[in-house]
Amino acid sequence: MPNIGPLELAIVLVIALIIFGPRKLPELGRSMGRGIREFKGSLTGDDKDDVDAKRAELEESSKAEEPDEGEVVGQPRN
Known about the structure:
The chain has helices spanning about 5-45, 50-65. The protein is mostly helical. It is flat and about 40 Å long. The relative contact order is 0.05.
């Protein structure tokens, strides 16, 4: 089985950048990381509740940062 060296890795990354573009690549990396984490958790038998709790916490914090509908960003509320 051939080893993957730095040149091969660079070629794969350049092709991925060309295909998906610079805006989509970070999102793909995050989703791959989540998938790998979930896969590892299922193999080791970690509690799925911990992952769900962290995800819910992150979603709540991101919603808190988003402005409400009709709210002007950068101006103080009355």
